[in-house]
Specification:
Helix content of chain A: 55-70%
Oligomer: heterodimer
Largest interface: A-B, 86 and 84 residues
Radius of gyration of chain B: 18 Å
Strand order of the largest sheet of chain A: 1-2
Number of strands of chain A: 2
Distance between the termini of chain B: 15 Å
Number of helices of chain B: 0
Shape of chain A: globular
Number of strands of chain B: 28
Amino acid sequence: MASSSAECGPVNAMKQLDSLLAKEQPPQFSGHADPMMMRPDQMGPRVRRGGPNDNQLAAEFLESSFARPGPIQPGFAREQELQNPFHMSDLSMELSRINIPQNMHDVKGKGPAHAIVHHQHPTIAAADWAADFLTAGTGPEKLQHFEEFEAAFERARQAGQIPLNAPPAWAEEFAQHHFNNPVLSAETEAAFEKAFEAAKSSTWEQEFSQDPAESWVNEFVEQQQKELAVDATDSKEALAQTAGMLLDVVAGTTNPKFKNSKFLDFMKKLRDKEVAIEGNKVVEAAGNSSSWANEFSQGAVGETSVSQWADEFQASAGPNWVEEYEYNEGMAPNRWGSEFQSVSDMNPEDAAALSEAFARAEAEASAARETEQHNWFKAPSARFENYEFSQSNPYLPSSIPTAALTDSNSHRTLTEAILALEAAVQREPQNATAWHQLGMRQQESENEAAAIAALQRAASIDPSNLDTWIGLAVSYTNENYRENAYDALETWVRQSERYQHLANRSQVPGTASPTSARHAKITSMFLEAARSSPGEQLDPEIQVALGILFNHSGEYEKAVDCFEAALSKRPQDYLLWNKLGATLANSNNSARALDAYYNALEINPSFIRARYNLAISCIQLNQYREAAEHLLTALHMQASSVEQLSQEMGGGVAPAGASVMSNSVWNILRMVVDGYLHRRDLAEACDRRDLDTLKKEFDLGVQ
Amino acid sequence: MNRFRTEGFQGYSVDFSPFFEYRLACASSANFGIVGNGRLWILAMGPEGVRVERVYDTQDGMFDSAWSETHENQIATSSGDGSVKLWDVSLPDLPIRSWQEHKREVFAVNWNLVRKDTFITGSWDHSIKLWSPEAPSSIRTWQEHNHCIYNTVWSPYNADVFASASGDNTIKLWDLRAPQSAQTVRAHNNEVLAIDWNKYNEHSVVTGSVDNSVKVFDWRFPQREVLWIQGAHEFAVRRIKCSPHNGGLVASASYDMSVRFWDISKVSSPVAGVPPGGQLRFNHSDHTEFALGVDFNLYVPGQVATCAWDEQVHVFPIPT
């Protein structure tokens, strides 16, 4: 393992270089300093980072100047690309440029770990530094100036001395980085520029001309110029060029298999623009593309609507990709298949194989549309039909009247409520209110499947209960069954006297409709409903529905606003606090999420789900012991509630509380104690459902 | 040799089931994975050859699969649209779980071999995520690499340790118990596309790169590769697998359309200071397009499967 401190004593230049670079690692990298570093990447959506990449550049520059005569490689990463066009990532990246010009923003923005940590370094007087740079020798004081050098090198480079086809987002981020880290004073900069020019004209050019790979250099320059000529938005051109590059590299092989490669044929067609990629499809170029694009103009992908789609994409991050693709798939498999059949210059074998494949795809797609099976966001209809009751429910044989069982004031804890309500519905299977309450309590206990089963039953008995539909929308959302959630929300509107009129304009629920379009429709419906009761009169139910919808589309800021608005009307609604917390957690605001969860628990301490969510957020914040404690508290509460009940109901066999305790809570707890706290013994206790051992370990007092 | 045609789809990865010696999965994509759908093939080998047990289709290309180590019928897959899905092969058509968190193609998915309760994914969005089949969202995300992540693999020895290979030319060693990577090694001068752990040497990994070479590294001595097969292939090395039966046997699949088997046990070096190379044991050159997948059967020593963009899955014994 490389030592992180610079070595003492005279050693050769390379070693010093290594050790210095090792020392200057920003904190986010390994504690064991590593002299070997990343190469900067310079193409498209893979955004440059500051810090170590500057080191790298400097390393490369100096390495080549001093240690080994050879071509200076300002765009050495570019060289890589030339040598490795097999990297499908190139093609894919070009592709994503076609479809998602905004993609680079997404990649750029993600994750707190992306924060670039700049290390401070002292500024050095211009004269010294420039002089040092000009001298061929190396010495320790010279190496200290690397950071300034790198920063300045970057500036020079950006200023155009070395052309790069940097897409705007990259340049923007770099400019920011640059702004945040002005290291050199103006004089130093000037000195550097001078020095750089001097060095370049003297050693650099010589090395260039001595370079046996001169032709490569020319090619590279040519390529750069070509790159510059390519507009960033002309991605099809770029795709064709990438395909061309790939073919160039492979051209040299003697392996006969390459001549017959279908993949390379495909690349040829891309390069020669006989074929192009549009959206999710491969498309015959020229003649047919415009009509095909028109088919798509309704809003997904096509030549004319790239920006539209990109906007949609930006507005709805991540999950909607799938929706968009689904939409595309559903749109025009017919026409696409027949277009392909009219391909004339593909060789017959290919055409046959392709049209076979498409005919099959078409058949599958239409079959899927009929049976609605291709929709990942819709639950299979039979999935939640049967509610599984707890075994040995102490309320079941008891003589307590049903009315008392369903009286929520008599329920002291969540677990008690569940058992009481289960008994009630077993006695009175048509009692919609009881089913509804049971569903809500199960939802609060982190038992999603049971919640859905109960709520579905309630809704089928009494569809006029609006709360049931909202409850279903929430549970479906949690299980990622979006279509079902939309169904529930639409039905809610339909059942609501106040907002019914809005629903008449939309579709009947259950009709196959692309998820993204549906989402947009339903959201606008609810927004209209919200507008009809503005300001002080705002209807919290509408706000909750909107919050759920915005969670679907990833617009977490808006969802937070909605839930907060609803909370202003219902500050004691612990479910709302939990929803707010979950939205914050989903948008990586774990710290704020904790507050919301605590609020929920203050109002209702036996709200298991909030504790579970709290634990998840603690894990996100690396607070593993706290997470375990919250989970254990939740489990303890569930178990002791059951125990207490069985005692009160008159001795007998203590019911197996495990059925009422949530499996998901146990699973997460096990993961925490095993993977994060690394306690094999505790993990085994989890397997045994041995709550006592775990409670002792975490010193949990009885609540 | 047994062959199977993954018709209409180009194979990206093959994985033998850890529970059944006759079962293997192939993750594949249409149009070479550039656009279009993906398909998971669940195949079974029998006396009459290889037949299909099940297929599952996905919206976007499928790049990798990983069998569950705890549930004999479950398998996780990763796709081009950033989604990760869990399937139960006893249930048709739909996945039993679907997660959508990665922002770009998910190129690798791998199941924990020791504790078996979690799996990791590596994506072109530069991040690695840890998942549990039970949890509705990822448990952890690591964002350190500067470039696409091509492969992430769990250690066969240590439940908390895994490694990643990335286009930033490095491989990283990770430990679940620490927030950041434990080690970063600049393994090649070019993108590292493949990595696998040696099943018989706790500290050893084998890497494959766009520089056409295969290297062996020891995490205890990361400055220098232990072994370097230069020019292992004519083009980039896309997949590396270490044999579960023989610590000296490594398979590499490449864009030069071949899958080669190397003996890395003989560590004599011809020139002092130069790391030793490996010996070619067998060259499987039957594929006619880029070969991307190779895997060893846990139950039948010497039996391997390969897949390639020629829509072929080959299952055969390595000649001794």
